[in-house]
Structure prediction request, 213 residues.
Amino acid sequence: MRMSTISIIGSGGMAAAIGGLAAKAGHTVEVMGRDAAKARALAEQLGAGATTGTFGAAPAGDIVILAVPYPAVLDVVKRYGEGLAGKLLVDITNPIKSDFTGFLTPEDSFGAQEIAKAAPANADIVKAFNTLFPHVLAAGPVEGRPLDVFIAGDDARAKARVSAFIESLGLRPMDVGELPMARTLEHACMLMLGLLTHSVKHTNFSLGVRLLG
Prediction:
């Protein structure tokens, strides 16, 4: 993929992990956050010419990573409003209750759909990165095998661009279908939390696909 500007809204663990891989891969990274000092600190940590943008102003990047917790994301998307028009929004959120007992979304909906409703009509929404723990993502390939990043979205061109971005980070994109499949990916995060709680007992794992010869 041609190197491009990637705007990341948020300055937490996932913002740092995706931003770190993107900067290393040669993309220009713009960090925007409600806490301007934290955004500046993350941009400095990323180096490689990473910049900070003003929270709520139109992002410089065509690809915008929504790296804020789900309880905050709808307000953030509404705050940016038309600044996100025509942008490719990558939804990495998981609308899961803090006690892991269920979802924060209406029963007939799912996180990515709620974001699509809040975003400008001509923004493209692609679900990605929501089944990876930040430190696992930041560490990159394991024993030479790239991590799998599951993606879902309605627009084929948008998904192709996100796939190319994922490959540029040394990761393997795995398309699971159209945007309604984002609900399944949100459930896959719940599966990971179940494994964490009952089986694995630590976060040093990832969900992936092993193709059998």
Observations:
- The longest strand covers residues 148-153.
